[in-house]
């Protein structure tokens, strides 16, 4: 993934510039954390990468193709910030529908649906209507849908918000397992302790990349002990 | 087919994890490949989308009751109020076409707006689904629902309320069904404009009421001022109501093919507009 002079305007004609002059280079097969305070441009950047954001200028290449290229649509799995699922359908009905949308054949569809349900630990709830599930369970349904097509790039907008520590640990293990198998993951979060679980960190603040390093290097550079302290040091240093 | 466990790398949990994704070009050997459906069909996501929408409607029993039951109750009231007169025979067929168009317009515009707000539309637009697939899938599902409504309503009005149609009864059913599809198609086209549910509900009077006024319900169209008469020609609902009025007055289906053709043309046009106004990239 590569960005040069990226500029994103959110909200149409009278919108706000949320990302301005962003440069970025991310290698494949890594779990990259996109961190920063809310309003820092994380979601807009992710939306630009998956090709649903209007008013994007500059260069943005994803998997060697310009962002939004039709060929990318099968190769990217996208999980939006709020769970984008059909509340009046069951978990399994949701997955079956999106399995057909991403073009899974009838012979592998059911296996794939069961597999991702296990991955996100929802197999016991597969017959329940999504509307009756907890926030974390809905978020996991949404994540399972993003995993369905075995995408080369997973773009996950705050996938672990509202989950308990055990589930969060399991999901991060899942993310690293996918990366070990060659997938690239871009995971946004505003929870700083998740930074330590990423291979690489991008700190986004005020529409610019404030830091681009590994968790260990960021701690070393700021002379802090926790990701949260490092983040505060960088944000306050950058604001000056 | 057995579900393989991927390479156990970095897996402290022993929990099964996702299958290998492979490099962009091919799947690693020895691992199962995900077969893409060999469907080079024109619109591959249409049927799944239609079935999904129908499944959503099926889960919602109240909506079904309102969609099918309410028009019957209203027509029953009309029949009761005017019992002993020929009002039902003269205006009943027109009402049979009006209900589906109004109800399906509302249902469709709210349903598509919900799709937009829940983020599922954004997810579909980020994926391989084509814009036309989503629109036509919705149209198909709600056309089926609207047709069921039109058929039940016609059966109720004829069998229970004893409406006597002078013209072709099969033609009345066909036009009522087409009106239902028209309502759906117009709802899909209009939903592009609405940003909130509040606006979506306002679209109904905005789009349909002017059509009702000029459609010749209150005053025959040939007695209207020339400008209004010209306007009425550009309105889709005019043709649906024209056909039903002619059928009520004793025409056969063959006599109203022109009006029926016009309704079909408006349906296609509204679907095209609905597809073109659906944006993959949003602000």
How would you describe this structure to a colleague?
The complex is a heterodimer of chains A (240) and B (283). Chain A is α/β, with parallel strands linked by helices. Chain A is 35% helix and 25% strand. Chain A has one domain (2-238): Rossmann fold (3-Layer(aba) Sandwich). Chain A has helices at residues 42-50, 91-101, 106-119, 135-147, 165-180, 215-222, 227-239; strands at residues 2-10, 16-25, 31-35, 56-62, 65-66, 76-79, 153-157, 184-189, 200-205, 208-213. Chain A starts with a strand and ends with a helix. Chain B is mainly alpha-helical and 283 residues long. Chain B contains 10 helices and no strands. The model of chain B is unreliable at 1-40 (pLDDT under 50). Chains A and B meet through helix 2, helix 3 and helix 5 of A and helix 1 and helix 4 of B.
Features:
heterodimer; A: alpha/beta; 7 helices; 10 strands; globular; B: 283 residues; mainly alpha; 65% helix; ABC_transporter-like_ATP-bd (chain A); P-loop_NTPase (chain A); ATP hydrolysis activity (chain A); ATP-binding (chain A)
Structural class category of chain A: alpha/beta
User: What's the CATH first level of chain A?
Assistant: Alpha Beta
The sequence of SSEs of chain A as H and E is EEEHEEEHHHEHEEEHH
CATH architecture of chain A: 3-Layer(aba) Sandwich
Strand order of the largest sheet of chain A: 6-7-8-3-9-10
What is the CATH superfamily label of chain A?
P-loop containing nucleotide triphosphate hydrolases
Q: Which percent range fits the helix content of chain B? A: 55-70%
Low-confidence stretches of chain A: none
* Count of separate DSSP helical elements of chain B: 10
Rg over alpha carbons of chain B: 24 Å
The major sheet of chain B is characterized as: none
Can you count the beta strands of chain A?
10
